[in-house]
Amino acid sequence: MRMNRLLVIAAAGYGKSRAVPRWLPPSGSSVPIVQEDVHDLTDNQVAAFASRLRSADSGIPHVLTSRVPLPSEILDALGSDLVERGPADLALSPHDVATVLRGDYGVTDPAAAVRVHEITCGWPRLVHFAADVLARDPAADVLAAMVAPDAPAARWLRREVVTSLPPHLADTLARMQVLGPLTGGLWDALAPQVCAHPPPDGLSWLVRVGLVVPTVRARLATSADQQVVPVVAPVLAEPPPAELGPDVWTRAADWYAAHDYPFAAARARVMAHDVEAAITLMAREGTRMVAHGDAAAIVALADRRPDLFVSTGARGTLGEALHATGQTDRAHAAYRPVVAAAEATTWDARTARRLAILANSEGELTQALGILDRVPRDRVGDDVEAAIWHTVRANLTSLIGYPDDARAEAERALEIAAHRHDPFGLAHAHQAMAKISTGVRKETHLTKAAAAARASGDVFDLARILGNQGFALLAGARYGEAVPVCRDALAAADLARRTGAQSVAALHNLAEALARVGEVEEARWQLQRAVARCRADIPGQVGIGMLGLGDLHRDLGQREQARAAYEAAIVAARGSRERQVLVQALAGLARVLLAADLEAARSAVREALAAGQGSERVPAQIADGWVQLTAGDPDGATEAAARAITQARADAAVDLLADALELAGAAHAALGHIPEAHACYDQAWSIWRDGGAGPSADRLDVLRFRLPGADATARSLAREAAARLRHRGRFMAGRSMPTSTPAGSSYVSWVVSACGSTGPRCPCRPGAPGRPAPSSSCSRPGADGRSAVVSSARRSGPTTTPPAPVTGSRCCSRPSEASSIRAGPPHRIT
After folding, report:
1. Which of 472, 471, 452 is nearest to 462 (CA)?
2. Is pLDDT of 736 > 80?
3. Please, which residues have CB within 8 angstroms of residue 153's CB and are 6 or more apart in sequence?
4. Alpha-carbon distances, residue 270 vs 194, 253, 255, 262, 279 (angstroms)
5. Radius of gyration in angstroms for the set of CA atoms belonging to the chain, rounded to a whole number
6. pLDDT tens-place string over residues 459-518
7. What DSSP element (H or E) covers 670?
8. Partners of 829 in the beta sheet?
9. DSSP secondary structure string, 238-273?
């Protein structure tokens, strides 16, 4: 977006000056008037500058940058068409941070980039300080090193940032930040108690300059949570401010409880020394706390204050939090007194539901159903807990194979939740209804479930819901829509479960969507994150990440790397008995081996076809077709393509349908059936174009032109497509379509080759040689700072489209939470 009146406000080090050019009118327009550091102007200079603005030609762009919000005189002079940009527009994304660490500092650990982004919130100058720490000591505690009193980052923050705060605001923020999530309402309620002279609109001021930023939960749910940038918080607390008194903590607890922040309310009760009230909250609101993403905080509190988790109700909350964070053994231990109490008295819906979910996650479906049935039907009730009990039972009966029972339970859950008008219960109930639905009805229930989860702040369930929505979008080849959904699914999974397969599933889904729209460098990084996380937390599932990397390497023409990744995926899948990963890795390996070892490719295809069942066989069928085509049997390739097309259509797997259509087009071309080849390519092109897969559509444009009889329009489209592919850093070579097809002729497959790649660049300092010192003129990358490559239109993965959404990921072998995921282009895992 271009504008004539642009105001950029952010604290020092956000890269304001570096970012301005991307918002200016294109070259050839009027030369802009740029006034930087307006915050340094005196009152007289402000008045003079405002006068000049009023008399200036409205057609001339004016750009102002400032570290603080501007005086009203200047704002009035800028007029009503003023556009403001701020910290949210300047902060680096996690992938941008990874590019800085790798390109400028040689730090390649994906987890390090994520950690740096967490503690800096993408503040560019602070990212460089953190990167410098890691470059000198990769094992360092980055936050501790940055906030040490004599650390360069701490000194810079005190000199350039803290000193710019209005009087009393630094002290107010230093004391308020210990409360928990900050909101405007909490600030207005407590700031007068915390500070004798609180600055008006203090929190809004801090948000505008970037010292306080929205939390991840605020972006995902309908909440207004804010947090101090973690690196800034300790600096503000030096010297330590006066501690808050019990009366302030009590008022904070009351505010949090009234505004649906149950864990923050319980923590505030503890700080106010009201232990009994805290224990009561823990017991009563535990499920909502976990749903809000506070499971890890609950576990940490229990480790510090075990006395808070002695009651049966609080133990139940602790067990649920431990299970949510992947600590199954500890969850069993926490639940033992809960089970004993239930056996001694009676089972209630909440206790049964919690224990059933735990048993289900360990594959004990029948046992889980039996636990639920320990609650007599007449004692289940009709509250929100009853609605959740019915959704769990719907999930179990569906998995076991009782569809009629599953439908009845889901409908009862929806009836209860709708009667209660409770978004938390509605989120669960609509998930259950989606599980027993198909097509548009299923998509509708998922949409309603996501809306209800956002409204209730339930990021735990939102992760599953968005994961299923992302899968459906990818299966429908709707990649442009899938990218933001998959990003939110990953954010929710990370917030709700810091470890485990759900985050890995979300990483794979996002990687495929990114690769399809041409952001292959970020896709590669997301897959590297997935592999690293699997190795750390669930090593048995590392094959799925290696499979995704194999596909990416194959798309880029890196055959040896692709072969190594596929072979590693095959070994891992055999060990973990992940049949779908095995089938897809074998199919991908076969396609890599086409040119080098056709017999080995045949062997891999045979094994893939033998291992796959039902729709899992589609990628193997596609690979079989390419093997036959390469071997000079276009008739056999045509038959393989027809089988794959039939199965893909039956599964509503639009993406795999496009892959199979491309194979069919190639086979028809080899047979000399040019009209049929055109028809297949046209259909595949339409799928990629409509779904936002620009690189794949561009490749099909080039393919269609290389068919005999292509006209001038096809030539023009192919030339433009080839230019776009070159601009992305890749070109296609080595394809020659025969004009005639004598018996035994072979089809020369596409080779995607690198073309003049210069490697990744630092998004803060594009093109800068060496490793620059931390600079305040950092900004997010522009279009010229990103490297994008074409993603193959061919998929090597089975198309097992699930009949309904599920509640997790197979990566951690939790059948109750087995989620259909898509793992890196071009394959999908159920």
Report:
1. 452
2. no
3. 126, 129, 130, 146, 147, 231
4. 19, 9, 15, 13, 9
5. 29
6. 999 999 999 999 999 999 999 999 999 999 999 998 887 557 788 889 988 999 999 999
7. helix 654-670
8. 821
9. SSPPPPPPHHHHHHHHHHHHHTT-HHHHHHHHHHTT
To the nearest whole percent, how much of the chain has pLDDT over 70? 86
Closest residue by Cα to residue 572 from 585, 590, 556, 587: 585
What residues contact 343, with CB distance under 8 A and at least 6 apart?
none
Burial of 225 (0-12, 13-18, 19+ CB in 10 A): buried
Tokens of 106: 């040689």
User: Are 101 and 134 in contact, with CB atoms under 8 Å apart?
Assistant: yes
* Mean pLDDT, range 194-223, rounded to an integer: 89
Q: DSSP class of residue 377?
A: G
Tell me the mean pLDDT in the region 728-737: 42
Any idea of the CA torsion for 453, 459, 463, 469, to the nearest 10 degrees? 30
Identify the bridge partners of residue 63 per DSSP, sorted by sequence position: 6, 34
Pairwise CA distance, residues 702 & 789, whole Å: 16
pLDDT, tens digit, for every residue of 342-381? Answer: 999 999 999 999 999 999 988 899 999 999 999 999 899 9
**Tokens encoding 100:** 């800085």
pLDDT mean over 615-620: 89
Predicted confidence at residue 499, as pLDDT, reads: 58
8-to-13, 165, 202, 401, 798 alpha-carbon distances in Å = 13, 17, 19, 58, 48
375 by DSSP, 3-state: which?
Answer: coil
Angle subtended at Cα 640 by Cα 635 and Cα 658, rounded to the nearest 5 degrees: 115
Cis peptide before 239 (omega within 30 of 0): yes
Cα(258)–Cα(236) distance, integer angstroms: 29
What is the mean predicted confidence (pLDDT) over 450-467? 94
Residue 134's pLDDT is what? 97
Write the secondary structure of 588-626 as one string of H (helix), E (strand) and C (coil).
Answer: HHHHHCCCCCHHHHHHHHHHHHHHCCHHHHHHHHHHHHH
Pairing of strands 5-9, 83-85: parallel
- Give the residue from 561, 507, 583, 495 showing the smallest Cα distance to 538: 507
Backbone CA torsion sign across 255, 260, 266, 267: negative
- Cα–Cα distances (Å) from 674 to 666, 687, 697, in that order, read 10, 20, 19
Which tokens sit at 442?
A: 């299923």
CA distance linking residue 734 with residue 65, whole number of Å? 51
> How many Cα atoms within 13 Å fall on the side-chain side of residue 300?
8
Neighbours of 574 (CB within 10 A): 15
Task: Round to whole Å and give the CA distance between 81 and 59.
Answer: 12
Q: Which helix (H) or strand (E) holds 730?
A: strand 730-733
Q: Is 420 helix (H, G, I), strand (E, B) or coil?
A: helix
Please determine, for residue 739, whether its predicted confidence score (pLDDT) is greater than 80.
Answer: no
The dihedral built from the CA positions of residue 394, 398, 400 and 402, taken in this order, carries a sign that is positive
The pLDDT, as a whole number, for residue 830 is 46
Q: What 8-state DSSP symbol labels residue 739?
A: S
Long-range contacts of 731-737 (CB under 8 A, 24+ apart): 731/755, 732/699, 732/702, 732/790, 735/703, 735/706, 736/706, 737/669, 737/706, 737/707, 737/708
pLDDT(402) > 90: yes
- Eight-state DSSP code of residue 821: B
Residue 182 DSSP label: B
**Residue 35: helix, strand or coil by DSSP?**
strand
Instruction: Name residues whose C-beta falls within 8 Å of residue 294's C-beta, 6 or more positions apart in sequence.
Output: 263, 321
